[in-house]
Amino acid sequence: MSATTSVESPVRLDSVHKTYGSGDSAVEALAGVSADFRAGTFTAVMGPSGSGKSTLLHCAAGLDKPTSGRVTLVGTDLKGKNETELTLLRRAHVAFVFQSFNLMPALNVEQNVTLPSLLAGQEPDRAWVDQVIARVGLSQRVKHRPGELSGGQQQRVAIARALAGRTAVVFADEPTGALDTTTAVEVLNLMRELVRAGQTIVMVTHDPVVASFADEVLFLVDGRIVTQLTAPGAEAVAATLAQLGARAKQTRGQR
Ligand SMILES: Nc1ncnc2c1ncn2[C@@H]1O[C@H](COP(=O)(O)OP(=O)(O)OP(=O)(O)O)[C@@H](O)[C@H]1O
């Protein structure tokens, strides 16, 4: 089973602005972001705390509505779509690994991993599900419930759940934050394999080593993409972050 589509750019943002609140308390979380996430690409989104990374992910996934601008997800303009339409679109084409793992406490590992496919009305590919569970190191835990697992193991279930359905798009927010280095590298290599098979992954991370597994790294500052690197090493990512941090400090000092 594969839900991947032939859309060239499964995720597109055109001049997306997002302002939270109004008047004196208004916060411009995204200040005109345009980005084209092409099929079969792995993109990392980086930037200082509060720069708009999570907001970008939420707007791109239709979990939050832009104040202005356009988001196109697997060829569908999200403007004017109601919650039911958005839910059906996401079920068919999108998977998430977010910081709160959102696992179903009453279901075991295997049931959690296959749930998105079942909800989308698709028969899970059992051999592939077993393979993904094995790759994240949970073969000995398939009958365990989330409450019986460590934080890192729960994160691995969330990753397996996101990757098992082979959806066109995967959005990930710090997907390897709770993992040891060896497991994190295994998960990132698995993500790269899926990208090579045509999936599109957009991942928020603070870690230059994690970002170095991506094809592109976008850097956000104050809700704008200020620079991007193609296939960078971890050192280049860290150097760019340091430069941006110094620039942000200077700007704050001038205010
Ligand atoms: N629901 C909300 N209501 C009001 N302001 C919000 C809301 N969500 C985010 N913000 C503000 O929007 C800005 C961008 O937040 P966002 O969470 O996207 O940043 P981030 O880059 O993901 O940060 P972090 O790295 O700390 O997770 C911040 O100033 C934040 O305070």
UniProtKB/TrEMBL annotation:
A matching Pfam family: ABC_tran
ABC transporter domain residues: 11-247
InterPro entries assigned: AAA+_ATPase, ABC_transporter-like_ATP-bd, ABC_transporter-like_CS, ABC_transpr_LolD-like, MacB-like_ATP-bd, P-loop_NTPase
GO MF annotations, alphabetized: ATP binding; ATP hydrolysis activity; transmembrane transporter activity
Keyword Transcription regulation (UniProt): no
Keywords tagged on the record: ATP-binding, Nucleotide-binding, Transport
SMART domains: AAA
SUPFAM superfamilies given in the database record: P-loop containing nucleoside triphosphate hydrolases (SSF52540)
Gene Ontology cellular-component terms listed: membrane protein complex; plasma membrane
Name recorded for this polypeptide: ABC transporter ATP-binding protein
Biological source species: Amycolatopsis rhizosphaerae
Upper classification of the organism: Bacteria, Bacillati, Actinomycetota, Actinomycetes, Pseudonocardiales
